[in-house]
Write a structure and sequence with these properties.
Number of helices: 8
Largest sheet: 7 strands, mixed
Strand order of the largest sheet: 3-4-5-6-7-8-9
Helix content: 25-40%
Structural class: alpha+beta
Radius of gyration: 17 Å
Distance between the termini: 53 Å
Order of helices and strands: HEEHEHEHEEEEEEHEHEHEEH
């Protein structure tokens, strides 16, 4: 099976598994040392990815939120699978619909395949480098006006506070997990996404490729591009939008920062 076929099939299967597990009233859950939540569902979906993708591509690197990281082993590989079994674990735990399964394949530090699946709404986003991004099979193409006035921007409160004077329509933090915010930017449902602070690779890689292949741009908060498969699996900040709005967001964020 091709890499794309493997990835897309397993992401869809993982989402369906999540739906089934989410109906269990006695689902065990606990808090990690970093304060984030994890459930039996996260671990079961991670196990599915391990069984299906890691077993099929044993020579590749592996990075998942729910697998103990081995930087030396993964950095020795050109190809790296980046997995977020459930993005939006709190929503999953509370029985809400705003969660998704996300996965990407990166080669030499850059994503080349991606899938994000929101199973409650049967919304399946895919992207392949140089081949575009799709939503339920339909090609995505982002609008790209330059103005930020009235733009629907999702983000954390620290980043949004630097943009309110521009008349944006802020989408408050917590309404969507990061991968779904990026998918919605790629689909034109949001005009941009911003965040200040560290963001893990598994929260970004799939969504970055979706936005890029839909015609947009994703970077760190000061405009630097992402490189995956580094010793520390995180990036510094997030700005995602069409190319013109991306530039305007970068200018606005950093103008406020230096003021």
């Amino acid at each position: 099976m091709s890499d794309a076929g493997l990835l897309f099939d397993v992401v869809r299967e993982a989402g369906e598994l999540g739906l089934t597990l989410g109906r269990q009233k006695s689902l065990k859950h606990w808090t990690k040392p970093d304060g984030s939540h994890v459930t039996e569902g996260d671990l079961a979906i991670n196990g599915l990815f391990e069984e299906r993708i890691r077993a099929a591509r044993p020579g590749d690197g592996w990075l998942s939120e729910e697998t103990a990281d081995d930087p030396r082993a993964r950095m020795a590989r050109e190809r790296l699978w980046i997995i977020d079994p459930i993005d939006g674990t709190r929503a999953f735990l509370e029985g809400r619909k705003e969660w998704c399964v996300a996965a990407a394949l990166a080669v030499n530090g850059r994503p080349v395949l991606a899938a994000v699946f929101a199973p409650h709404r049967d919304e399946f986003f895919t992207a392949a480098e140089g081949r575009g991004a799709t939503f339920n099979g339909a090609r995505l193409s982002m609008p790209d006006p330059v103005s930020l006035a009235g733009a629907r921007i999702a983000g954390n409160s620290k980043a949004l506070a630097r943009l309110t004077h521009l008349g944006i329509a802020a989408d408050p933090p917590g309404s969507l997990p990061l991968q779904l915010r990026l998918a919605h930017v790629a689909a034109g449902r949001l005009d941009g996404a911003v965040s200040i602070g560290r963001r893990h690779d598994w929260d970004l890689a799939a969504g970055e490729l979706l936005v890029a292949e839909a015609g947009g741009r994703v970077s760190g908060a000061t405009g630097e591009g992402y490189i995956y498969n580094r010793p520390e699996p995180w990036q510094q900040g997030l700005v995602a939008a069409g190319a013109k709005r991306h530039a305007a967001l970068i200018d606005a964020l950093n103008c406020q920062r230096s003021a």
